[in-house]
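Support case: adenosine-5'-monophosphate-propyl ester complex. Customer-provided input:
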Amino acid sequence: MAGSDDATIQDLGHESRKFPPSAEFVATTLVADSSLHDEGRRDYEGFWARHAGELLSWSKPWHTICEWKLPFVKWFIGGELNVSYNCLDRHVLAGHGHKVAFYWEGEPGDTRVVTYQELLDETQKFANALRSLGVQKGDRINIYLPMIPEAAVAMLACARIGAAHSVVFGGFSAQALADRINDASAKVLITADGGWRRGEIFPLKPQADAAVEYTPTIEHVVVVRRGGNEVAMQAGRDHWYHELLAQAAPTCPAEPMDAEQLLFLLYTSGTTGKPKGIMHTTGGYLTHVATTFKYAFDHQPDRDVFWCTADVGWVTGHSYIVYGPLANGATQVMYEGVPNYPANDRVWSLIDKYKVTIFYTAPTAIRTYMKWGAQEPAKHDLSSLRLLGSVGEPINPEAWIWYQETIGHGRCPIIDTWWQTETGGMMISPLPGVTITKPGSATHPLPGIAAEVVDEAGNTITRGGGYLTLTQPWPGMLRGIWGDPERYRETYWSRFPGRYFAGDGAKLDEDGYLWLLGRVDDVMNVSGHRISTTEVESALVSHPSVAEAAVVGANDATTGQAIIAYVTLRGGLSVDEKVLRDHVAKEIGAIAKPKTIYFTPDLPKTRSGKIMRRLLRDVAEGRNLGDTTTLADASVVTELQRRATDSPSED
Ligand code: PRX
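Agent response - structure generated as follows:
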């Protein structure tokens, strides 16, 4: 647990370069002074209420901005609005129906241009189709789709009729999907035959079928045709999306929802094996993502084309592909596939083709592009870009500088945005027309947000390393963990009383800039994806040959952290490393496959039997071990170190 393991609170070293926004950028930015930060500091409730009123349409005004009964918060009490109305109808009513919502590009190169009018038409029909399947306000709907416009339609259709969606990333296994469906007791599953990835179809419907065998609450499965691959359809249960739409009535008025109506669940990893269903509601969440989208990206609807490379299966896709951008009437690029198909310059070719102005991606992707080389972006005209963003993990100064020089040509501010599934939207980030950035620092809390770094005992510190905490409620704050209010309190509010503890280490430098230092708990961050050590351990131990497993995240130059597993086999059994790696992929998904598995007759344990993960991390990262006298059997470690230097590799 955090605190017992301060080896992770390490200093990133000294980075003294500073980058003020250019005069050219400042000349046309939305905010070039401290007015927003000042307003947020003076009265954070008033700040968020002003934006809720200015950026959104409400069918009924709220009577109370915020009710804070620690750790439970409500925002805009008494207010009513509909998220899908705010993302679609009002833009069409304002005469922007012809405006492009998505320039979608499939991996094979097929394209679709979807306007706001088209998105509204399809959302209304699909909302009616869901109703025809018996979906009612308050029901939970699972979504398991590739990156296609139907993913946004499905989410918005749920919002339109007050059903909560739970999107599961298409890379997750049938088992992981079934667990999430069962936890939410979802009634309908929306999936596709398959999608394109690395030049091939990855089938989704067979995974969905395998999951639905174990999910008694699923009554209907809706299948979007995308891959064209053969799929089995079970009569009465399975329905083609296009057939449902063909039969659906064209209009479905957006129902006013209470501001605190559940909008979605999104499952994320915690420190125990069971993923948590993070709850987000309607009015506060939409206010948070609409406001941060507008100001952190300096979004100007008449000039910008926005591209966020995340998948809708993650919170970044929810907040900055679907809800934040659409609430702002943005035009976006949505891309289905991998960045290196058919070649390593696909991303840059798309920026050039669609004249993307704002680009939002993850450090792991930036490091990969660095590896592929500067000649790839150099093949394309990237002069449309005016702002670059980063999210998901700490960005190392080297990658930041490469991004700034090689992609932004020194012209584009970089916003390094820190936030979490739980925070709903961005929390710590530069404001691009205001903040002087430093490579690798997320800089300061956004207007209306308050954060402090505390020491082990919970005392506020103003300089040096400690734990990142949030000290006042914000509108996009999670409202709880689905079905488990106690776990919510315990996970986020117990470590430092009165404060939300995010699970991250952070440092404040001499200028008061925040530097995120990574997770301090048993959660790994692999390519920006949160994976719990316990989940991977449980998956390993579920294999019949495995007696015990310990998993750690070790520093990795490309993926941030890599999953390293130490496995003890049952007496007399042997198993190939690849078999175990594939087993984890089957249980959780390919993203959770350990990079390396070490087989060991014993795991290092304290005398009380606790596995010493810190020590295993030291071994994995080749560090000196220091004091091992608390170990029950110190010779175990010597043996592990010897094996680590043999450096096995991933297949
Ligand atoms: O450790 C932090 C890291 O990602 C975690 C949240 O993961 P998730 O809920 O999957 O959401 C990711 C997308 C918002 C955080 O606890 N993280 C996210 N952004 C940053 C970051 N670490 C450092 N710098 C960031 N900009």
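The chain has 20 helices and 31 strands.

Case will auto-close in a few days if no follow-up is received.
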